[in-house]
Design goal:
The protein is mainly α. The chain is built from 19 helices and 5 strands. It is 50% helix and 7% strand. The longest helix has 25 residues.
Amino acid sequence: MIPFHRRLPLTVLLGFVCYAYTGEVSKLKAVTGYSKNFVNDPLPESSALNTRVKFWERIFLQYPSTTVIVHDVDNLDRIIDIIDFKLLSEQRGLKLPNRDLRDRQSLLFLKRYNQALGRFAKHGKTAETFGPMEKRILDVYGRNRQSLADLYKGRVKIRIQGGLRDEFEIAIKRAEPFLPYMEEIFRAYKIPTDLTRLAFVESMFNINARSKVGASGIWQFMPKTAKKFMYVNSFIDERNSPLKSTKAAAQLLAINFQDLESWPVAVTAYNHGTGGMLKAIKKTGSRDIATIIEHYESPSFGFASKNFYAEFLAARKAFPQLLKESKKDLPLPKVQLEVITLDQNLSVADLLKAAPMDKKILGEYNKCLLPRAFDTYVNKKLPPYFQIFVPKDMADGVYATLQKLKNQRIARRE
């Protein structure tokens, strides 16, 4: 007979765990099945966000990573310069600089443009005569009185943004094995499946993504938040598992929506935090994300938070377009996976001794097992009802060896 847990869909198996975590997970009883605001598109694009969304569409679809855009922080349609390192290298007969060198050169461009902005604040219109950078700035900001006034008063803030088209194309290939399962998980939590595209914004589906501040995995969970939904300890980090972290992301987004009652605001809370967005709602008296972006002032509500929802909308649009251009159709094919819930007190050493898979396969399909799980902590017992992923064609052998282990334990007790 096929064991009961083998007859369940993968998404159910992912949830078929005793919740060993505290805090936020308990709220989900009130969230699952929540249907408020699910009329028409729950993830709308208002006309007020159009400029922001179009900017990010250009970043995702038009410009590769060898191109850097110098632009206004608050008005994304004000493009000061487009630096095409590939074209510049070809024109000069030089080799394309590597990523680190391009980053350093981009910062130098930004520094020089900021110096040019400082000259306008100090000298007014006469700064135009100082050089080509000043002339370019005046061409952009001299188109209306308000922008010109901002320029002369030193109110203009600029930044650089690298293109992402080539990285997005690579990200789609990374996403192929997981995205169909991820959409099933989001459906199980009754939240819009398009929200899985947030993983492109967070990490470009890079399983090995690590931020300087400690965020990890395709969903870029910080350790403190992750521990509310996943195992994160000295030898296990489920943030690194695409499917386990997707389940956590679905839970977090569902809780955000319950607390904030608006998907655009709930999405922004994934970046800015639920508490931060509740403050924004209170200060602006609105749950409209465009109103919050325009009127909410807070040192922590910066460029990333203000653009997070627009960036997501652009990624949602870019994804099918890039798929179409690569001649791939939705839905993407599933990777053949089997998820197994360990109902025995086993270590990684036990699994490697008994199961018909080696360290390489176990590690490849279970990125949540850190390198230490295979050496220093190889004999440490895994958490109760821990789940592992195995290739479908190995599943029967793994089940058989796990059953053999169980029978041996029962025999020893008898």
